[in-house]
């Protein structure tokens, strides 16, 4: 049994990192907003989904006009990524402005309900527009970056088999790494990043240090949503077909990843996302084997979430979170 | 010349009048103390000046501009900085970064410039670091620059709060119980430090304090609040002998011999 698990390990890792990278970037959006407002922004998964739809719509449009064939595919993708992230970024800012800011001083639960409302609204809005334009709310983008590669793990040791991946997987991983490094630099080294951390720790004191708190909160939503939207595009390119409901379960898992890493902690969200992705893929590949055929691959979520529960029982603040100690 | 003019300032919380038509004029370059028993409305008074609360009535004027209706970050830009009765540092970031937050307003970098990391932005961030370091030297915390603020000793945290406030280049510095929890030696050092700040930095200082020795020694003008009302104002010697003040602190029996 161990030999078989080992055989499939390289492929599990490649697929797990790709999926985990997506969880990680979405988890960043949850964790940033939570850090600054203590709000679980349940609409964030839907921003990811909307990003995927905007991206695919643009790609389809560009194909129709013959642009996609005329320019290098990677250039087209970068263009789509930039435009989508700007659009979803502003969408995030608008959502905060209209649905959360008026409720800033009401109990946290009220804002949470508002977030769930926004989430349904976006799902149905995207579904309506897509169905209206295309007659079907399930959308398949133009096929891009489908070349297969393999890494010859078998040449390292015969107990591994080769791992296969598509060009899009590589692009996905590279793009995510760039986004993460960029964000980490922004938050830790720049004036606005510092303002963000100050507001997250103590909003009132930050404002007394001449930081415009509302501007910083808008900025946080912009960045989180821009990253989420861009990830949506990458997701659509990687997995091909999208529907308006992909944001729900993916958002839930990304939220889980954020909690796993310690919510409010940016590096924690990155690590949590990758871990969850790899665990899930591992479960998908090996669950049948491990349980002697009782559970199939479709139970992978149970496996991943069971591990989450175990982690939280022993380390409730998450893997990278700091335990909050009461001052005495 | 007066720098801060407060007139008829009133704040109510439900039925409680926390600050009741208080008038106050603070001279530029002076050291002024606001004293009063617990619950007299001193901190509320500070919160009204810094925009944390909006007054129900009255006016607060810094120099020639009114501050009423402005948000705290706008008031801070006008040149008022403060420290807190209960230390409120950004405890999970470093000592240096705490001071750099105070420099926020003078950094011109917009969000776009920050995203593209233009040369100008990078130079500016470097200068900010140096300036923050300068403030740490000024309050004597330079060797702790990379520690998390929460790991500093209590007295050091108080000084860091002052450094952070000074970084905003205030015209008016409000200190809320700066000597709370300090031993006599630390209090003496603080007294010297407050004098030094005024000489070096051309800043007007208003402080809330319970340590009467400090208050009497340091202040040129004292305002006394009790139950939200101003009951006395004057020089330390006048306040010391003011019947109403003694009554407020010690009760009526202290003034009327039994």
TrEMBL record, chain A:
Q: Could you list the residue ranges that cross the membrane? A: 12-35, 47-68, 74-95, 107-129, 163-187, 216-239, 245-266, 273-296, 302-320
| Membrane topology reported for the UniProt record | Multi-pass membrane protein
Subcellular localization(s) per the UniProt record: Cell membrane
Q: Which family does it belong to?
A: Belongs to the binding-protein-dependent transport system permease family. LivHM subfamily.
Record keywords: Amino-acid transport, Cell inner membrane, Cell membrane, Membrane, Transmembrane, Transmembrane helix, Transport
Q: What is the recorded name of this protein? A: Branched-chain amino acid ABC transporter permease
**From what organism does this protein derive?**
Fictibacillus norfolkensis
Q: What is its main location?
A: membrane
TrEMBL record, chain B:
**Which Gene Ontology cellular component terms are annotated?**
plasma membrane
Is ATP-binding set as a keyword in this record? yes
| UniProt domain ABC transporter: residue ranges | 4-252
Any one GO molecular-function label of the UniProt entry: ATP binding
Write down the InterPro entries for this protein, in alphabetical order. AAA+_ATPase, ABC_AA/LPS_Transport, ABC_transporter-like_ATP-bd, BCA_ABC_TP_C, P-loop_NTPase
| Keyword terms of this UniProt record | ATP-binding, Nucleotide-binding, Transport
Which Gene3D superfamilies does its entry note? P-loop containing nucleotide triphosphate hydrolases
Q: Is rRNA-binding found in the keyword set?
A: no
Give the GO biological process terms: D-alanine transmembrane transport; L-alanine transport; L-isoleucine import across plasma membrane; L-valine import across plasma membrane
Q: Which Pfam families match?
A: ABC_tran (PF00005), BCA_ABC_TP_C (PF12399)
Give the PANTHER family listed for this entry: AMINO ACID ABC TRANSPORTER ATP-BINDING PROTEIN (PTHR45772:SF7), CONSERVED COMPONENT OF ABC TRANSPORTER FOR NATURAL AMINO ACIDS-RELATED (PTHR45772)
What protein does this entry describe? ABC transporter ATP-binding protein
């Amino acid at each position: 049994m161990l030999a078989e698990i080992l055989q499939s390990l390289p492929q599990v890792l490649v697929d797990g990192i790709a999926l985990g990278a997506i969880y990680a970037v979405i988890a960043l959006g949850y964790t940033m907003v939570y850090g600054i407002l203590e709000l679980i922004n349940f609409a964030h998964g839907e921003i990811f989904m909307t990003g995927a739809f905007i991206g695919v719509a643009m790609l389809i449009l560009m194909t129709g006009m013959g642009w996609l064939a005329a320019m290098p595919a990677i250039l087209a993708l970068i263009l789509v990524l930039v435009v989508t992230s700007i659009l979803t970024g502003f969408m995030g800012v608008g959502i905060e402005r209209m649905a959360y800011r008026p409720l800033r001083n009401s109990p946290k639960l009220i804002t949470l309900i508002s977030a769930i409302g926004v989430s349904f609204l976006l799902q149905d809005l995207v579904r309506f527009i897509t169905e209206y334009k295309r007659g079907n709310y399930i959308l398949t983008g133009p096929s891009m970056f489908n070349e297969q590669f393999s890494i010859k793990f078998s040449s390292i040791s015969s107990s591994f088999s080769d791992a296969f991946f598509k060009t899009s997987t590589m692009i996905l991983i590279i793009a995510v790494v760039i986004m993460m490094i960029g964000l980490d630099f922004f938050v830790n080294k720049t004036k606005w990043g510092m303002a963000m951390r100050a507001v997250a720790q103590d909003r009132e004191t930050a404002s007394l240090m001449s930081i415009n708190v509302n501007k910083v909160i808008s900025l946080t939503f912009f960045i989180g949503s821009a990253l989420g939207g861009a990830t949506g595009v990458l997701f659509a390119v990687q997995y091909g077909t999208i529907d308006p409901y992909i944001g729900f379960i993916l958002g839930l898992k990304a939220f889980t990843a954020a909690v796993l890493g310690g919510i409010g902690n940016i590096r924690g969200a990155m690590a949590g996302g990758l871990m969850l992705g790899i665990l899930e893929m591992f479960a998908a590949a090996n669950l049948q084997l491990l349980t002697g055929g009782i559970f199939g691959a479709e139970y992978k979520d149970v496996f991943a979430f069971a591990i989450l529960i175990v982690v939280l029982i022993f380390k409730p603040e998450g893997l990278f979170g700091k335990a909050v100690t009461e001052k005495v | 010349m007066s720098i801060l003019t407060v007139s008829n300032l009133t704040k109510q919380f439900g039925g409680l009048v926390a600050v009741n038509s208080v008038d106050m004029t603070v001279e530029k370059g002076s050291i002024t103390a606001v004293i009063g028993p617990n619950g007299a409305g001193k901190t509320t008074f500070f919160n009204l000046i810094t925009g944390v609360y909006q007054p129900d009535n009255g006016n607060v004027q810094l120099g020639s501009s009114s501050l009423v209706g402005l948000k705290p970050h706008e008031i801070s830009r006008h040149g008022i900085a403060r420290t807190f009765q209960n230390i409120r540092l950004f405890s999970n970031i470093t000592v240096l970064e705490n001071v750099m937050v105070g420099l926020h307003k003078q950094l011109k970098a917009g969000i776009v410039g920050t995203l593209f990391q233009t040369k100008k932005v990078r130079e500016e961030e470097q200068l900010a670091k140096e300036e923050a370091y300068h403030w740490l030297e000024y309050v004597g915390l330079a060797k702790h620059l990379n520690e998390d603020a929460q790991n500093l000793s209590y007295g050091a945290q108080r000084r860091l709060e002052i450094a952070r406030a000074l970084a905003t280049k205030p015209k008016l510095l409000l200190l809320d119980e700066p000597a709370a929890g300090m031993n006599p030696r630390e209090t003496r050092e603080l007294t010297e430090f407050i004098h030094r700040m005024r000489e070096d930095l051309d800043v007007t200082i208003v402080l809330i304090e319970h340590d009467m020795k400090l208050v009497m020694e340091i202040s040129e003008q004292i305002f006394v609040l009790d139950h939200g009302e101003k009951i006395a104002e004057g020089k330390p010697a006048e306040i010391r002998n003011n019947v109403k003040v003694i009554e407020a602190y010690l009760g009526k029996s202290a003034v009327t011999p039994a």
